Amino acid sequence: GTGVTDTKGELGFAWDPLGDSKTAVRGGYGLYYDQTFLNITGNITIAAKAVGVTIRNPGYPDPYAGGTIVASAPSTTVAAPDIQVPSTRTLSIGVKRELFSGLALAADYVNTRGEHLFNARDVNYPLPVTRVRPNLNYLRVTRYQTTGNSWSNALLVSLERRSRDRGPMFGISYTLSKATRDVEDFGFTAQDQNNPGAEKSLASNDRRHQIVGNVTWTLPYGFQAGGIVS
């Protein structure tokens, strides 16, 4: 489908507090807009024109032959009037220190907040007490909207060696993180439509602990050998 190109805005800084070119305090802020499919509203408009018919004991190949049409109100699909572009705000701050020549230790904190994520909600869901739908002319009224959220916090610690002579270059990093959100994917629908906030929990891509190591060795004649373990 047609989409809007990703856009972003970034601002960062780096500071040498000791003036010895061995310690760097750095940080940054970024605002990123995701790609939005412009044909969603059009597809929903087309879907709303479709009429579903339920037939009990349908015949074959003609489902109406011998079948009984079950009289029921139709379901429909609508789009929220205020569709927003999904966005993410990221804030980071950290410090990096050279321990020995070519060997540096770094630690960074990263906070990420996602807003206006796509989800779906049955706005004609039965009332919690009476179990009756507000609009009796319809069953489900699925509304595609952008009210989803995500939250992420991470601590990144890394040790790296950049060789200026013969010998290996290596790096090892450890990430402690927690990712939560109240949606999972496009068109996500809450289990309890009367309590969508209860969906806030650990995300499917949450990884509490992660360790990654890499090594690169320079060989004769301009070749390099490397490996990564995660």
What distinguishing features does this structure have?
single chain, 230 residues, mainly beta, two-stranded antiparallel ribbon, 1 helix, 12 strands, 51% strand, disordered N terminus
SSE ordering: EEHEEEEEEEEEE
Oligomer: single chain
Q: Give the amount of beta strand, in percent.
A: over 45%
Which segments are poorly predicted (pLDDT under 50) over 5 or more consecutive residues?
1-5
Q: How much is the radius of gyration in Å?
A: 27 Å
What level of helicity do the residues show? Answer: under 10%
Task: Describe the protein.
There is one protein chain. The protein has 230 residues and is mainly beta. The chain contains one helix and twelve strands; from the N terminus they run E-E-H-E-E-E-E-E-E-E-E-E-E. It has one helix spanning 40-48, and strands at 7-15, 23-33, 54-56, 68-70, 76-79, 87-100, 103-122, 141-161, 168-181, 201-202, 209-218, 224-229. The strands form two sheets. Strands 1, 2, 5, 6, 7, 8, 9, 10, 11 and 12 form a ten-stranded mixed beta sheet that branches. The chain has a two-stranded antiparallel ribbon with strand order 3-4. Strand 8 (141-161) and strand 9 form a beta hairpin. Residues 1-5 have low confidence and may be disordered.
